Amino acid sequence: MVATATPGVSPRAERLLETTRLVKAFGGLVAVNKVDFHASENEIVGLIGPNGAGKTTLFNAITGVYPPTSGSIVFKGHAIAGMLPSKVTKLGIARTFQNIRLFNEMTALENVMVGQHCRSHTSMLRIIARTPGAMRAERAIRDKSMALLDYVGLGGHAVELAKNLPYGSQRRLEIARALATEPSLIFLDEPAAGMNPRETAALMGLIRRIRDEGMTIILIEHDMKVVMGTSDRVVVLDHGEKIAEGPPQQVRSDPKVIEAYLGKGAA
Amino acid sequence: MARTPKDNQTDAQPSGSGGYRAKLNPIASAMTGGGSTRSTRILLAVLLAFAVILPFLVGSNRWITLMTVVVIYVVLASGLNIVVGFTGLLDLGYVAFYAIGAYYTAIIFNNVLKVKYGVDLDAFWWLTWINFVVGGLVAALAGVLIGYPTLRVRGDYLAIMTLGFGEIIRILALNWVGLTRGPSGISGIPQPAILGYHFTTQKSLYFVGLALALLSLWAISRIVRSRIGRAWTAIREDEVAAEAMGIHTSRYKLLSYATGAFFAGAMGVFFGHYLNYISPSSFMLMESFLILSLVVLGGMGNLAGPVLGAIVWMGLQEWLRDVPFIQLHPETRGIAMGLVLVLLMVFRPQGLLGSMRVKLEMRPGSKDEAEREREVWSDAGS
Amino acid sequence: MSQLAQQLVNGLMIGCLYALIAVGYTMVYGIIELINFAFGELFMFGAFITIMMMSPDISLFGQTVGMPHLNFFLAIIIAMVVVGIMGVVIERLAYRPLRNAPRLAALISAIGVSILLQNVAQAIFGSQQVPFPDIPLFTTALGAPKAFSVGSVEITYFQVFVVVVTVTAMLLLNLFVQRTRMGRAMRASAQDKSTSALMGVNVNKVIAVTFLIGSAMGALAGGLYGGVYHSAWPLMGFNPGLKAFIAAVLGGIGNIPGAFLGGLLLGVIEALGSAYLPLGSQYRDAIAFVILILILSFRPSGLLGSTVSQKA
Questions:
Q1: Phi, psi of C165 (to 5 degrees)
Q2: Among 2.60.40, 1.10.287, 2.20.25, 1.10.3470, what is the CATH number of C2-298?
């Protein structure tokens, strides 16, 4: 690897996702202010910052929920700023939501199968005719989805309605559903929120396992144990701006970061 | 990675063709349907037998007419259910698609063939059958056109917009006299025929309608139990999440409108050939509300609900038509419908069949396949 | 030129009626985000009750029943009170239980109420048109409406009355909403229901008052409509109701001056359109729907509404 000025930051050529001077403003409120953010292959990037720092806004702008006000976003060589979320997903970015957004009246298995939607293309006529090709594609979807449920530990709950699952299982289901879209990069928005220590430890294991499968993970979390324990690199936002970036240990002792969280005079 | 059956205490699958092994592995029995599928199949068979045999048992044509009406509304309600129940889009202008199908075939036969070309309509008997599909497709196209402006609009506004479109179509039918003959309507639509055999009796027409309905329900069932049905349901449940999971929500919403419209259009064609005459008064706004009521009554979002709603309501209505009080006071029907809608929403919004849900997966085609599947799953678990 | 002015006058007047109903829609939607389909029927009942109070007798359920034979002004006020109460009762029974239900359910319930009221009215009053009694103050000895001319444009006294009443009602309503405690509570609830409740606002009462006022305005419009067109019939409310909602959207839903503006605009555009567009008079009803589609496609927040960008 080529030596760069900032340790832990990969050279530009290897970057999977890169935003350049990304701005997102809502009327007068600038939620994301000229943020340069990147992620490389096989990396876990922690994105932290006090509430209202713009972390979820950054997620939303990259995944296409709303178009950025200015700046560029490049993923796998494609310029994706302003692209429809479904198109961004097809390119290989998946996400979970801060407030769980499952398909409540569908079963856990069906939820995950929805994730596989963009990876198969059976036409309506073939679906009506139930051609062997269509049945094969459906079986493949079901098998893969079932495997993903097992992967996150929900294999036994396949036929339960999503709304009836306990909270921790719902979070894991969202991750399984996101994985079903076969992403190269996955955004996790506060996946550990509301979890007890045992669940959190299991989650951390799951995150590492996902990275080991070859995916890149960008993680918003307030639980510092999770962030510091899994991230290869941490990026800190405050008031929409990037104020620090680097390996976890370095960032946690950065005076600017401490000040952002605890106020002046605490460093 | 093996699933241990003892972890799964939640299932209460009835026993049946699922068998001992399937009971051990609830996932397998759920996926293949297990016992519940058999009882559903029996019910469907009984209903079908009823539908086929009854016309031969009853004496008067009135009952056969009633059954034909029920059959039409079964399809209309099922078609609207795709849009409202599965995709969650409140379409209040659905009757427009019914009208488009009816007017399409009427215009083709009457205006074009008879009037413009002076052709003997008998020679074109085959066109009727083709028109079921073509009329449906024309209506589907209208569905896309009407759906497009509603894509960016929120639920309640969407409802009013679709209502507006429905009314615009009706106003067009009423006023574009050159095309639609305005309030006088179009007559002389020929009855269906095959190679010289004319479907002229009520009974024969009923069976044409029944065949269409069975075909439509079969197609709808297959479409819904697939990735398309999953996409629609996902949009209904959470549009933002659906889009984030790779579903192009705009395209699937339009597909939903188009599919629902197709079946309405097809039934519109049948309606035209059944009555031999259509006029704008058959396609008023109240029809859209009526069809919506059928869907709501039976239960939105599952396949049997609209069927049940149509049978119960239209059956009841036609049956009570001769009661003197109701003849003297036609508004009782409207009062009942209004009350039913409000009471249902307040006390039982899921409708009569609400708790039933459709498994949004393609079922295995044959019984052998189902057996093989069960063995695969239960082997994995043991 | 004079035809244009005449159309403007007519359009303005019908626009006032739309505005009165639109205000009800916009207030209710602003607080509970429900399209109260039933406002059209409340408008209709307003007309009928006004007729009832003005007549010496009337046919109810097929039987002739004696009536107070009051003057127009008293009659319309009674109609406003009665229909206002009707609105409150409807909200309590058909909408309040669905306050936390998915919006689809409340919408369907509203449709049900609308259908119910239409048919109840048919049961009570019959399905035929019922004539609206002449108002002595506005009618000449020969039975024609008293009118005056400005150039070649004829304006009836009653039309002027309609405009005056509408403007007065709007001003009073605006005063109420801006200056009174209840008005403040209404504005707060429209902004944020739950926070208002936490601040001690009795949201249920606010909603009841909103329905009371909205329904009363609708009834006022109904009585005035009867006076202009000299008749009422059970299905008369559906069309104006729909158009009034479109007017509310045009002006900016949730915005009371917007509803007023929207109503006037819609009335004028309709009048001009039906007079000057080819086949305009036949497609008159379609004009409102076309306006709706245009406005929702290009400026969904309406003319006076503010474009608020949403933070996801």
A1: -60, -45
A2: 1.10.3470
